[in-house]
Specification:
The protein is of the alpha/beta class. It has one domain: Rossmann fold. 45% of the residues lie in helices and 17% in strands. The chain has 8 helices and 5 strands; from the N terminus they run αβαβαβααβαβαα. A 5-stranded parallel sheet has the order 2-1-3-4-5, with helices on both faces. The N and C termini lie far apart (46 Å).
Length: 145
């Protein structure tokens, strides 16, 4: 456990697996997420399937290359093994149409390179409902006139 971090905060952190054969890219994504999520870097689909048996991810971020090597069926295989997991595919070019193919195959969303940290965080947060929405309290509850 990290020093100065409350136990409740550590327990409620969502787990994200970043899957890409490019080590630098994985490290960059992990860095973008590490402050709010428990991020794990994995180099292959085989490694990811094995690790998801040990610890279940809340979100898989799959690189286009990993899916192309293993086929679109990989998305359904992950969902069959860990059905509660959300999947975001990171595609090389939005114009290729591969992101839409992956969504049609069962992925929850996709992002295109180059990634912007704000968009990445917004998509991850939306899928994992990490950031709480503001709550409106009626004035009558606050006993204000």
């Amino acid at each position: 456990m990290q020093i100065g971090v409350k136990v409740a905060k550590v327990i409620e952190r969502k787990r994200v697996f970043v899957v890409d054969d490019n080590e630098s890219f994985r490290a960059t994504i992990e860095f973008m997420l590490h402050d709010e999520y428990e991020a794990h870097e994995l180099a292959s689909a085989t490694e990811t399937l094995a690790k998801s048996e040990q610890i279940r991810p809340d979100l898989l971020m799959l690189a286009e290359g990993v899916i192309r090597v293993n086929g679109l069926d990989l998305i359904q295989e992950f969902l069959a093994r860990v059905p509660e997991t959300k999947i975001i595919v990171i595609v090389d070019q939005i114009s290729s149409g591969f992101g839409q193919e992956c969504v049609a195959a069962g992925a929850h969303d996709f992002l295109a390179k180059p990634l912007r940290i704000e968009l990445l965080r917004d998509k991850v947060d939306a899928l994992l409902s990490a950031r709480k929405k503001a709550v409106t309290i009626p004035r009558t509850v606050l006993n204000m006139h």
